[in-house]
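RECORD CONTENTS
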Amino acid sequence: MDRSTSKILEEHRDLTRRYFLQLGAAGVASLAAFPLRTEGAEGERLLAEATAQLEYLTPEAKFGGGGRGNPPPNELTPEQRREIGLDRETWRLEVVADPGSDVQIQNPLSKELGTALTWADLMALAEKHAVRYMKAMTCLNVGEVFGMALWEGVPVREVIWKTRPVANLRRVWYHGYHNDPAKPGPGFRSSLSINRILEDPPDETPVILAYKMNGDWLTPKRGGPVRLVVPDGYGFKSIKWLQRMVLTNDPNPNDTYAGQNNDVDTAMKTFARFISAPKKLKAGQPAALTGVAQVGMSGLKDVQYCLNPVSQSASPDDPYLTKLDWQNARVLPPPEHWGGGLPDGRLPATPQRFDAQGRPATWPMRYAIAHWAALITAPTAGQYELCCRTVDANGIAQPLPRPLPKSGRNEIQRIQVTVEA
């Protein structure tokens, strides 16, 4: 088990019993009514115990993913962070023209000119333009969900318009604080097309300057006081400790990941992972599975699992395991209580993609997670392989349609299971 998976297991085992209890009898009935290959009170009890350990939003202390720098800013003292502009009183954001291009702006937000955006400026924008939305944070090269959060911030376009751009603006380069003497330069960087910042596709959420997570101010470890959050992107797009943005007519990305053989324009992929799965079973006795699905650009239709005898392993001409005996798991409904440290687990004023009653407009939500559950029974003793996968809203099974890892890890998870007589 890798470190990212263990973080998820720890998170869900701590607080999620409350989630299933809040489903009540109707939730138990909905699970029992779904075809999970094992019926009866014992199956319901196993599912109840397993799904009781699921919490939707990730508490800040259990969020995965680290910082960059030597040391990373979250390891500095409050006084040191204040000195380098990483507390709310001293934070400044520069938004300036690239001197190497012919971009034209009339009002650069510059520390030198005394016009850089301050915390007070950002809060003034928040009074009119603040948005909240759900987004999972995950790494392009890891293939595990680091955490699920409710983010709050101001759309970046509101700040871009303050610079009064005139002409020749095609891309925005941006980076956060950097303090690694061994790696001179601006440190970890990323970029976006100006069009992605200025306009959102239907039912999509904006790129934001985020200052809250799960209702609380961003902690230093999560990139506070202000970070970028790109809703459809992997974590390398959502730069922490944001301090500078450069407007340019250069169409090329300046992303750190561009130089590391990664696709810097990829959107998040849809994939499934186990949260709890047995390594040993008794033949003929049911066992519960739970898992998490990341819902990427293509949405989510189903989560599936299979328990396949090793002696009947997939053939070399079936690399994506399409010929296995896949069965549908149960994708759990939205929780009544969202967890994540929110008071009573209740959401603040209606986030984007929620209706007036505080319910998700669609479920599962793209660029978020969904939990799933299933019961398995192995008929005979032996060695088995347990797998899980998603089927996206277009009917395409993981890892297709984008199986290449440099645009995001989404390989099928495979676990070895021993079944005893």
